[in-house]
Specification:
InterPro entries: Archaeal_FAD_synthase (IPR050385), Cyt_trans-like (IPR004821), Rossmann-like_a/b/a_fold (IPR014729). By secondary structure, this protein is α/β, with parallel strands linked by helices. The protein is 42% helix and 19% strand. The protein has one domain: HUPs (Rossmann fold).
Length: 149
């Protein structure tokens, strides 16, 4: 039986933490689907719009060799993602471990025979830290789309 893995994320300002998550996830399943959260989900979850548009984020992630498929993930609740994609294992950064949301997700997925696997969160690099650096450096006169990247 083939194990389907699911790795949801914003994948905005793609960095080494994203790559590490996808690499480690691909080692623990037979088919890896990356769920690229939509702009609305990212705004609801983190109160910010992504820098890179959804269709570009999907294209970037789809072309990572560890990823078998990349799909738009329109759900804040990752159990709803399971209802749509029927994965066997969901991969998350360990910043979710032992949180109310993480425990709830683990419980719901266990009821349907799926599980959550956590990987170490890349503390020194994150999209939030990159945004902060860009804002502080003054190199961003507008949005990525306005300056042409």
């Amino acid at each position: 039986m083939s194990i389907i893995g699911y790795a949801p994320g914003a994948y905005d300002l793609f960095h080494i933490g994203h790559l590490n998550l996808l690499r480690h996830a691909s080692e623990r399943c037979d088919h890896l689907v990356a769920g690229v959260v939509t702009d609305d989900v990212l705004e609801a979850a983190k109160a910010q719009r992504p820098v890179i548009p959804l269709h570009e984020r999907i294209e970037i992630v789809r072309n990572i060799r560890y990823v078998d498929d990349a799909v738009a993930d329109p759900y804040v609740d990752k159990f709803e993602s399971w209802r749509r994609y029927r994965f066997d294992v969901l991969f998350k950064g360990d910043d979710w471990r032992d949180t109310p949301a993480g425990r709830r997700l683990e419980a719901l997925l266990s009821e349907v025979g799926a599980r959550v696997v956590y990987f170490p969160y890349t503390v020194h690099t994150s999209s939030t830290a990159l945004r902060r650096f860009i804002a502080m450096s003054g190199s961003q006169s507008g949005s990525y789309r306005e300056t042409g990247g």
